[in-house]
Design brief:
Blueprint lengths: L7 H4 L4 H4 L28 H8 L3 H14 L7
This protein binds iron/sulfur cluster (SF4).
């Protein structure tokens, strides 16, 4: 992930009007799958248990999981 990415809205290229109406913006972009009512794909998403199947297919969610796994590796095993 480029260091300049500040949250899901940049990764997903959410247009300004969408990000500004999204409850994940600006503070919860790194844990957006835990935020109900996000504006992913331009539509208000449901509560967390109902949107998780969609999030598990999302490239941002997968990238966050990848980084978590990387951070938990012993230092000598990191890429
Ligand atoms: S689909 Fe889920 S993981 Fe992807 S940006 Fe939206 S809330 Fe975040």
């Amino acid at each position: 992930m480029p260091a300049s990415i500040r949250g899901c809205w940049e990764w997903m290229n959410c247009p300004r009007h969408l990000r500004e109406s999204c409850p994940a913006f600006p503070r919860f972009g790194y844990i957006c799958w835990l935020v109900p009512g996000t504006m992913c794909g331009g539509c208000k998403q449901p509560r967390v248990p109902d949107k998780l199947p969609m999030c598990k297919e999302c490239s941002w969610y997968k990238e966050m999981l990848r980084l978590d796994r990387e951070a938990l590796k012993p230092v000598e095993a990191r890429e």
